Amino acid sequence: MHPAYSVIIFTTASGAGYGLAFWLALGLLVGWTPNDPWLSGIGFGAALALIGVGFASSTFHLGHPERAWRAVSQWRSSWLSREGIFGPVSLALIALAWVLAVFAGGVPGWLSLAVIAIAIVTVVTTAMIYASLKPIQRWHNIWVVPGYLALALATGGVLANLLLEWRGVAGNFGWIVALSVLAAGFVKQGYWRFIDTTASTSTVASATGLGQPGGVRLFEAPHTQENYLMREMGFRVARKHAMRLRRIALIGLVAVPVVACFATATFDGLVGLALAGVGAGAAVIGVLVERWLFFAEARHTVTLYYGAEQA
Which residue in 35, 49, 110, 280 has the fewest CB atoms around it within 10 Å? Predict the structure, then answer.
């Protein structure tokens, strides 16, 4: 699939925003983080900004953004519609948490639970938009939803750790974030192992209904020049480039943040803040590369009609 930068920014920014809101709400609920108006105010405000930027970016991928509101009417069957419903609800709850944290002295427990739940549910609905697409075997599998959740918790966690270091109240939170980052790395490795070792059942023979697998090949292209389907669905990334980008993603998303988070649990002050900043910056770069690969490595079955032997 052709990687659309608007969707890459959407999934990266909104995932980090929901992850940040999750960790802040959980920290307030269980007492990991103090009831600090500055910390909660900037934290929930940053989460709102990231989610808002993400959703705004996603509209640039629509052919008619002015009609986007109509999508919510299909909530019974469409995960995109469900995301369109949960998105505004999540923004409202996180905004309420921000208001209460800044102006009312703290976030009540019920609201923290609501923010945690809505963050998870909204990320799941976003992931299911892709996981529900049967024509794309590299999305229609059990690894996509855990991958979206793990990446959201990892990127949101390193941002939360940066905020806690800034306020000097991180404590052992870096260890918790490091474990979530490691979990994201394991899930991502599992996803890559799956797409590398599991072949799609869709072939030219099954797509056309002619003959047995291996006995049907393209005789002549259906078009004399490149069309929309070939540009959007037929994008390919060379395996050697994909492997190199996977290593870059793992270094940025996992290796550097894990070391940085472990270090912030030991060092305080400016050193800890600088290390937390390095970990957060590396995670952003790593997840951007990973998101690009998620779309670039996907294969739609329509490419079988344009020369691909297997989708």
Answer: 110
